[in-house]
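Q: Hi! New to this. If I give you a protein sequence and the SMILES for magnesium ion, can you show me the bound structure?
A: Yes, paste them in.
Q: Okay, here:
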Amino acid sequence: MELSREQLLEAYRRMRRIRVFEEKLAELVAAGKLAGFLHLYAGEEAVAVAVAAHLSTRDTLASTHRGHGHCLAKGVEAKAMMAELFGRATGICKGKGGSMHIADLDRGMLGANGIVGAGIPLATGAALTAKLKHTGGVAVAFFGDGASNQGQFHEALNLAAVWKLPALFVAENNGYGEATPHEFACSVRDIAQRAASYGMPGVIADGMDFLDVYAKAGGAIARARAGEGPTLLECKTYRYFGHYVGDNLQYRSKEEAESWRQGRDPLERFERTTVGEGLVESDALRTIDAEIAEEIEDAVSFAEASPWPSPEDVSSDVYVSY
Ligand SMILES: Cc1ncc(C[n+]2csc(CCOP(=O)(O)OP(=O)(O)O)c2C)c(N)n1
Ligand SMILES: [Mg+2]
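A: Thanks. Here is the predicted structure of the protein with magnesium ion bound:
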């Protein structure tokens, strides 16, 4: 095992943080305490955390409308994200971004994005910057199966391959774009097949398995850092909640949802393997569970007690001036 006990515990902590953060948001919406359009990442935790485990702050990441998991995996503070979702002045974007526009440039988190597929060319641009400036950094784009049918996916992958950019394209294939099944909208079974059109490797990982994603993302990122160009990594995964909080889920069966959870849940599976192989102790995981439960409760209290942005600040931090 290439990962140390500490690294494994940190990976579990991040996956647990995402799970509890997302479940808390669903609860807050149901209780009428939180408004706005939320797309939850629960079920897909292993993808973001395993990819981000290979990244440091010199590396950049572009996210999606389902971006909380990517932000937390990249190290954005849960407290500042929660305040952002509550629209408070203490939020990571001072309450002006909200769920779909969380960004934290100090941590290389280029932003969630309300436009499906728009993170792909942004990450490609960041990879070009890294290459031209010789930063040694890698840029990662996360996007869904639906986004892989967008024009910008194809344009960006082509250019990234032509220019041999240090980029990783992570397709999170959760089987649906809103209520449309992947098979209905996509010309190939595996999104990874599309890599062949652009002369880059196409790799498939089990997105419910942290260790599988970690190994495959690691190979692709090492390749990118070595100047050998981009990779398309498709992670087969599933979102536990609906497309957005409030989705009635009529387009998929309970059996289907259960078949992705039973024995495959990314946190349970991580625990089974790592505890089973004697790499971490279950007590250590339970301590993390308790710490995360408290951290998320504290984040909510912090957000609820935080001030609203003041009307005088309505036009500050909205435009970038050069
Ligand atoms: C350009 C654009 N088209 C349509 C939408 C509406 N929309 C929001 S999310 C979504 C589905 C995206 O599916 P996928 O890429 O598979 O991501 P997932 O929601 O499954 O994570 C759509 C069509 C949008 N936000 N932007
Ligand atoms: Mg999808």
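A: The domain at 5-296 is CATH 3.40.50.970 (Rossmann fold). Let me know if you'd like me to explain how to read the tokens.
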